[in-house]
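Handout, page 2. Input:
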Amino acid sequence: MSTFLSPFTNRRGDEYGGSLENRARFMAEIIDALRREVGPEKLVIIRLSGIELMDEYGGNSEDEYMEIMRIAADHGVDMISMVVGWH
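Output:
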């Protein structure tokens, strides 16, 4: 998921690239599918970077990762395990 979320690695020109919302689309679709499969009674937990440490190369900022986490929560994630970096 991290390579889709990062503007550093995601150079796609379709609905999965470009804007933060588009880059988060793959993550949101995975969360939606997991939630449908396990139902409301089970926890859905994902691991996301809180910061890429790639600012000088065009990676996501802390604010962008906060927005990504909000998108994950809006799609039904119950818990986020946050790490630093992904590379």
